[in-house]
Amino acid sequence: MDRIVGRVPGRVVGRMASIVAVVFLCAGVARAEDPRLARGRELLRSASLKDRVEGVKLLGEADSAASIQPLEDLIRKNVKEMEKEAKLLDQLDVRYDEALRYWEQAQDSGSREFYDLAKQYLARVETDWKARALRLRALLSISVFAGETFGQFQSDGAVAAVEQGARTESDLLVKQWYVRGLAGPTRRRSAPVLAKLLAGSDPMGRALAAKALAPAVIDRTVFDALAAATRDKAWQVRLAACLGIARAPIDHAVPVLVEAVQREDGEVARSIDSLLRSLVGVGFPDAPKAWGDWWKAHGDEVREGTWTPPPPQEREAPLTVETFFSLPIESTNVAFVLDLSGSMNDDLDLDDARNRELRAELRLPATRTGVAKAETVRAIRGLPDGARFSIIVFSDKARRMAARPLVASGGTRASAIAWVLQQKTGWLTNVWDGLRLGFDDLYGPGGSSTRFLDLPDTVILLSDGTPTRGRFQDDESLVSLVRLWNQPVGAVVHTVGIGDDAPKDLLAVLARSTGGMYLDVLARKAGVERVRPVVPADAVHPPVAVAVARAREVFEAPVAPADRVWAVRLAGSLADWSPDALAMTAEALDHADAPVRDAAATVLGSIHPSLVAPVLEHLLPHLKRGAECQDDGASASLRVLAAYGAAAAPMVPTVVEVATAASSGHRVEAVATLGAIGPPAKAAVPALVAIKAEPDATPELKAAVDAALSRIRR
Question: Which residues pair with 492 in a beta bridge?
């Protein structure tokens, strides 16, 4: 690979114009610039990596649209510098091999002078290599820090700029940070942008969007989009969609997951089965079709909230596709990444009758290499027809058997086994290069939809020693890279340590960070147990009807205002799932406690546009009463209408009544609401002019009229 991460594309004029427009619209041309922005941009231009870190912090703290482009530019700048450092490291690798040969020759030469010179040369090369590697690691760390900052912005202008980047960015590395920046419970406003990405042509963008939408799955529109994505052609998208669906109300989530699990096999099917098990307490990991019968028998109980899970039972041993040592291979889309460094030639007479018998059949020696090749051959033989698999070996460099995954058949199995048996050991241990190819060099040159679709759902990494070759050799960087590559993928990485010197800490962390297992071959036990995706018990959402009934019960009970606010928010979150929830939220506008009214107004002001019409019907009585007296419900209703903007146009006549009634205590609010409705409220212009002309009109009321007329007439 000639570079660490993705190609840097040219600037797109339209993209820049959009970013500039966002900056000026949201920040205001006349407003003085936040000093943190200028200082942050200055620090990002520094050659000092410490300054760049401080610059990223300042731009994040500024929380402005103007922060976005400098952060993107920094990522691209760092990528270019990483490419340069990586090429220098490759050259130093060649010099290091040369220096080692000189040193070995010097040891045998008997010449003290030759020995000292060779030793000095080796030390100098090692020093240079460590300095370059340290800078490369720092550049990677800063790039990740800058990218993750996209998810911390809260201001409207900054979020709008991140949304723009998610829509238009073409570079895979930068795009994934933009889309990830729109994830989280505070990003509900970005759901429409993510929904468009979910319906787009780029499978990586769809997978990232599905993950980012998961926190907003309580929104019925988001739920429907994720439900459709469970049929996507990319397994990464289907699995990410199911992870989100599992957080929806259980009576809606379970039937979608039941349908999805019956369409899958291997690792994806077992992951969905695990989600279902965490929701309903039963599972069929080795018979996904059984879920259809279970739902027919118990679906009504789940919908009604009367389903009671059976007592937990010890799970029987899984019917795996095959094993790799004692590691179960539960995938039909797997990549084997095998260490063939020089130390793999060390003796290892494993006390395993199956392995010994297979080595005898294949005429393999009792070495780490022989043991590993025998297990790989067994795994390949056991893959069912139609399974997809790749084989990658690494020592000083990594190499793969074929450019694209093979589809298991008699012929491809025979070819793969022959290729594995022919592979020779090298010298050093380049774990980075093996993992890079295991993830198909996702952000390297030529990154494409095809490359993303070819990625395995399971990677099995076998190694016997600490990394000694490659651009990244420290544990922290290797784990960080796997997380970066795997963010849009969601693959499981199983790791196998073979030999006394296996890098147990690195292998354990790699497995743990992806939900995989780490197996110590000599100890014959798992150092890290398998963890499948689940919905935590406190995050399982009850059936809609049950949740609404609970909200109603709390709302009507003699409880503290904070508890009623909780009930209103719960009902409001289910407004587009249940008419009863919508009605209860609207009723809360009449409550005597101001926090309860405010919560109801906030919830109703953010509901889905398709529900605006029925909400307007609920608001009408409050507004009518508000035209006649100091009705608090009218004030809350006006805030809701202001949030709806143009969609509230049908209520203009009623709002005019509130604004013009002498008995109304909400005239200023009503006038401001007409302004928020904008041009669709033009019928209110004569009434607003008349209000301003009233002899006893207050300055506050007149100012509100001027502002409203300006917005309506624009």
Answer: 458
Tokens of 410: 């008699």
Are 392 and 370 in contact by the 8 Å Cβ rule? The answer is no
Smallest CA-to-CA distance from 404 within 419, 413, 393, 392 is with 392
616 within 8 A of 651, measured Cβ to Cβ: yes
Q: Cα separations (Å) of 90 from 130, 387, 470?
A: 12, 36, 8
- The pLDDT tens digits for 423-437 are 999 999 999 999 999
> Residue length, the chain?
714
Identify whether the C-beta of residue 489 lies closer than 8 Å to the C-beta of residue 296: no
Q: Binning pLDDT at 50, 70 and 90, where does residue 30 land?
A: very low
Using the predicted structure, report yes or no on whether residue 14 has a pLDDT greater than 80: no
Name the token pair of 593. 């406690």
DSSP string, 626-695: HTTS--HHHHHHHHHHHHHGGGGGGGHHHHHHHHH-TT-S-HHHHHHHHHHH-GGGGGGHHHHHHHHH-T
Which of 596, 670, 678, 685 has the alpha carbon at shortest distance from 639? Answer: 670
- Identify whether the C-beta of residue 395 lies closer than 8 Å to the C-beta of residue 429: yes
Q: Please determine, for residue 2, whether its predicted confidence score (pLDDT) is greater than 60.
A: no
Query: Is 349 in a helix, a strand, or coil?
Result: coil
As a whole number of angstroms, the distance between CA 275 and CA 242 comes to: 8
Residue 314 has pLDDT above 70, yes or no: no
Q: Which DSSP state fits 602? A: H
Cα distance between residue 378 and residue 383, in whole Å: 9
Q: In angstroms, how far is CA 146 from the centroid of its own chain?
A: 16
Distance (Å, whole) CA 395 – CA 97: 14
Please say if the pLDDT value at position 326 is more than 90: no
SS3 string of 295-336? HHHHHHHHHHCCCCCCCCCCCCCCCCCEEECCEEECCCEEEE
Beta pairing class for 388-394 and 327-329: unpaired
pLDDT in tens, 637-676: 888 888 888 988 998 998 998 888 877 788 898 999 999 9
Mean pLDDT of the chain: 88
Residue 103: band (very low, low, confident or very high) from pLDDT cuts 50, 70, 90 = confident
Range with top average pLDDT, 131-135, 349-353, 584-588: 131-135
Bridge-based pairing state of the strands 492-497 and 458-463: parallel
Q: Is 60 exceeded by the pLDDT of residue 281? A: yes
∠ CA(701), CA(706), CA(708), 5° rounding? Answer: 90
Q: Using CA atoms, how far apart are residues 443 and 451, in angstroms rounded to an integer?
A: 10
Instruction: Give the C-alpha separation, 482 to 467, whole Å.
Output: 15
Q: Which two tokens stand for residue 36?
A: 């943190």
Q: Which residue has the tokens 């220096």?
A: 99
In Å, how far are 412, 445, 515, 573 from 537, measured between CA atoms? 45, 43, 19, 19
